[in-house]
Description:
It is built from 13 helices and 14 strands. It is of the alpha/beta class. An eight-stranded parallel barrel has the order 1-2-3-8-9-10-11-12, surrounded by seven helices. About 40% of the residues lie in helices and about 15% in strands.
Amino acid sequence: MTDLFVPLQSLKQGNWFKLICGASFQHLPAVRNLTLAYTLAGADCIDVAADPAVIAAAQAGLQVAKTLAKDAQKRGFNYKGNSPFLMVSLNDGEDPHFRKAEFNATECPKDCLRPCERICPAQAIVFDSIKQDFSGVVSEKCYGCGRCIPICPYGIIYTASYVTTPGAIAPLVMSTGVDAVEIHTQVGRLAEFQRLWQAISPWADQLKVLAISCTDGEGMTDYLRAVYDLIAPLKSALIWQTDGRPMSGDIGDGTTIAAVKLGQKVLAAKLPGYVQLAGGTNSYTVAKLKAMGLLKGGGQGGQGGQGGISPLSPPSPLSPPSSISGVAYGSYARVLLSPILEKLENKEVSNTNVKTTIRLEEDEVLLWQAVELAHSLVSQIKSRQRRESEH
Length: 391
């Protein structure tokens, strides 16, 4: 099976796994190392910010993974050197995924207990950092979850949002060799979506996957039908990403319920395309889907999917999915590996007074620990596929 077919086959089989690095997450060493670990663990798609430097960091991780394929197989990981799709996220208007927290640390009282620092899942808030010679929000690490805002006792933390400039970003991103694009939209933004789509459409034929990410709202399914009418016909596969409870998967198991409920709502709408969960997903998600029979072949009601359709073709409007085709993991997947990535940062070495961050593949012990952790998440949805391939 070629590189091209593996992720699409996962969509068709209902065991697609996507890593979300974060639409506004720009910490290049972390993007590179997360991409490397999750690729070796069997991910089908890596979703990153629409930033050429971030895209290049992810592509570097993908290339290193290819060189480690044989080592991965020897260690029992089912990675055969195929690359996951590289996806970039764009937005057609204000969206919590496309923002950064900011505050002026000189305004913080000396006796503040700094709850913002403790609650930040990305460790993006620092005070009196010797390494960075800085206090405040480390912008490239912040991915906009917003948890620091309500917890600040003095109300001095705010966010700065940004919106994709279609004419400027589309040619830049699409010329870097990405495989897939995800558009974040919201109910009521059809005109804005159309403007962004018009900027992307000249490059649309080269995409393997187009994903539409939308949070819940009144009239959501009608809105998604209108979006489909705008983008059809498509040569690429189409994914509806149900963003249940954005950027919350690391908070607790209960957050996945919103993602599953929204997935059920979109499935019931019988839209052409694959349905993939996001927003609140964590280690509980696949078990919940299996228990509810929402995975293909995963129990009662789980006989849906795209049977008989070429993995290179989008699902036919005549055979809408009746099961969830995949799961995307964001904050939970990143936090899972953060202890290892933190160890790497602390192993920073100085070479002729220039600080160099150790790359994950340069520390064999940490590398395979990271892959093992990543695999513990990937294998939840891939376990059935692995068992079938062994028969």
